[in-house]
Amino acid sequence: MKSIRHLILALVPLTLATCGPKPTSAAGSSAGPTADGEKKLNLYCWSEYIPQSVIDDFTKETGIKVSVENFSSNEEMVTKLLAGGGKYDLIQPSEYTVEALIRENQLLPINPAALSNLPNISSEFRSMPYDAGNKFSIPYMAGFVGICVNTAKVKEPVKGFGDVFTPAHKGRIVVLDDAREITSWAFAANKLGINDVTPENLQKVKPTLKKWLPLVKVYDSDSPKTSLKNGDVDLGVVWSGEAALLYRDDKKFAFVLPSEGSHLFVDSLAIPKMAAHPQNAHLFINYILRPEVSRKISEAFPYYNPNSAARALLTNEEITNPASYPPAQDIPRMETFRDLGQQAAAIDELITQIKAGGK
Ligand code: N2P
């Protein structure tokens, strides 16, 4: 994933440029910047990611009523999407899931003519290998999976997964409740590429996972910050935006990109093939792409904002939050996930089995 490392390196130090290349053509559906006949939008998004105030302001401006459902993992979202038969107009998959949904012909092509604000997205984020040219997806937020440490409680240095998952921290650890993420940490700790998922490699990392998971106190993908904040746990492996919120309010919460490497995610907005309101979905995406709207999202959920015009509006405190925008030298060891096809099910089975205490 060299190209991704280059992409992020190219973004650091942060550019204040507000314009990238113009959309290339108006190919795709004929959806223009108009609403569908029915003023509705069914949005299926990650929990704690799109502020309700942003949704309400969109409704005030357009009259389009948004009904929101939340998910906690890509796998949960895909399962419900495929079972839902056209229930959703707009979804929020991560990069590897965009890749899978494109492969399975589940997404509607984006109509760039309906997205006048698309140039606000950094050009680097518009040529990502999972969907080069944003034919089917528009980056919403990027971020990292890393280690958050309450430094008032944990005094020894924590640099990587090996320092988190030790008997000394038994019962004091929170992790994301996400099989793909958890497995990737064990891959990284065993010096295996996080996308090199094969039955043999899954067997190789199994002993690591069997050592690690009994040490965990809390599994939480929705709000892992809560158990850290409440003092239920002392450290954990969490989404960068969650750690950024903790650090913003209390500097004792440090964020570390694991020494072994970890996941750099790019979460996007995409329109399912069966969407009933695709034009409203385009209107919502274009609204989100406005610098002042995207800035509000960053304020509430401080992930790595791919919208360079919005980044230019952030305060110095926001842009120097090390969980949102980690040190440049740490970023090259982070990688995006790729679509694993059939192997994905094997990951779920393995984690379910180990959580249940199986062999
Ligand atoms: C937001 C979750 C971020 C998703 N609550 C990471 N892919």
Describe the structure.
This protein is 36% helix and 15% strand. It has 14 helices and ten strands. It has helices at 2-11, 52-62, 74-84, 95-103, 161-164, 179-189, 199-212, 225-230, 240-249, 278-288, 291-300, 308-311, 316-319, 343-355; strands spanning 40-46, 65-71, 90-91, 138-150, 173-175, 216-219, 235-239, 253-256, 262-269, 334-335. Strands 4, 5, 6, 7, 8, 9 and 10 form a seven-stranded mixed sheet that branches. Helix 7 (199-212) runs parallel beside helix 14 (343-355). 48% of the residues are buried. The protein binds pentane-1,5-diamine. Pentane-1,5-diamine (N2P) binds at residues 46-49, 94, 239, 265, 267.
In round numbers, the mean pLDDT is 91
The total beta strand count reads: 10
> Whole-Å distance between the termini?
33 Å
How much of the sequence is in beta strands? 15-25%
Reconstruct the topology from this structure.
Elements: H1 2-11, E1 40-46, H2 52-62, E2 65-71, H3 74-84, E3 90-91, H4 95-103, E4 138-150, H5 161-164, E5 173-175, H6 179-189, H7 199-212, E6 216-219, H8 225-230, E7 235-239, H9 240-249, E8 253-256, E9 262-269, H10 278-288, H11 291-300, H12 308-311, H13 316-319, E10 334-335, H14 343-355
Parallel strand pairs: 1-2, 1-3, 5-6, 5-7, 9-10
Antiparallel strand pairs: 4-7, 4-8, 4-9
Helix pairs in contact: 6-7, 6-14, 7-14
Bound molecules: pentane-1,5-diamine.
Note the main attributes of this structure.
about 350 residues, alpha/beta, seven-stranded mixed β-sheet, globular, disordered N terminus
